[in-house]
Amino acid sequence: xPPEATGAEAHLRALEALYDSAPxxxxxxxxxxxxxxxxxxxxxEVKGDAFHAANxxxxxxxxxxLDDAAFYAANGLVSDRFLLTTAxxxxxxxxxxxxxxxxxxxxxxxxxxxxxxxxxxxxSSGEECARGTGTFLRSHIALTSLKGYRAS
Length: 152
Fold this sequence. Notes:
21% of the residues lie in helices and 39% in strands. It has 152 residues and is of the alpha+beta class. The chain has one domain (7-145): Hotdog Thioesterase (Thiol Ester Dehydrase, Chain A). A 6-stranded antiparallel beta sheet has the order 1-2-4-5-6-3. The protein is globular. Pfam families: 4HBT.
């Protein structure tokens, strides 16, 4: 049995549990990995039920995955408070078709009140389909007050 995570590692595992507990992820099935503070990977499958009328992923899916990837990259640096998205800029670069995809998040700047992080979506062929940049504000919500925030 592996040893129990402590410190920064425990915080990242608790954030992964928080992501898994969010009801929205029952609509957008996905799996998050936080390899280290400031980085995130969200693996997901693009399915036809997320398509618009022209048979590619609707912008809702792009936004959800990019925002989550950037958010969790930034919140990996904050162990006491939940961050809130205050703005997000999204650029579509290629239609996202059915198949596997990964949203990769990366913290860029900020360590006190406002954080900036970026994310991109890469499809199963390795091509970028979208990218975005978000700003995130430290809230008054304690992470430990959230039912899903727990080390596994």
